[in-house]
Amino acid sequence: MYAIIATGGKQYKVSEGDIIKVEKLNAEKDATVSFDVVVVSKDSDIICGDAAKSATVKATVLGEGKAKKVVVYKYKPKTGYHKKNGHRQPFTLVKIDSINA
Predict the structure, then answer these.
(1) How far is residue 65's CA from residue 33's CA, in Å, rounded to a whole number?
(2) Domains of the chain, residue spans
(3) Is the pTM here over 0.85, yes or no?
(4) Alpha carbon distance 99, 65 (integer Å)
(5) Which of 43, 46, 66, 91 is the most exposed place for a label (fewest CB within 10 A)?
């Protein structure tokens, strides 16, 4: 059984017991969070649309962190313009506990 959840403007395919990195959530460590469900697959049936609105996915927050640094380099030829910037995207690590369809 799996579900497709939506959080942080992205969609993730999850099963029970999966550990995933999602966009940073405002939740403490060991807190329980629930996600919006887009699609649920139970046995060989696929449930989507309004029928999937009643489904829930519960997860436990394991921690927070920052991803690897992405270097942004801007350059314009013949003008001497160089600008180097770095960015580390924050994330929240969650473990999927249950999928209720």
Answers:
(1) 17
(2) 2-100
(3) no
(4) 25
(5) 43
Cβ contact 51:83 at 8 Å: no
DSSP string, the chain: -EEEEEETTEEEEE-TT-EEEEE--S--TT-EEEEEEEEEEETTEEEEGGGGGG-EEEEEEEEEEE---EEEEEEETTTTEEEEEEE--EEEEEEEEEEE-
- Beta carbons within 10 angstroms of residue 94's beta carbon: 27
Cβ(9)–Cβ(23) under 8 Å?
yes
CA distance 64 to 11: 19
1-19 pLDDT, tens per residue?
A: 888 888 999 999 999 999 9
Q: Which residues contact 92 (CB under 8 A, 6 or more apart)?
A: 21, 22, 23, 24, 25, 27, 61, 63, 64
Q: What is the mean pLDDT of the chain?
A: 91
Residue among 9, 5, 30, 31 nearest 20 (CA)? 5
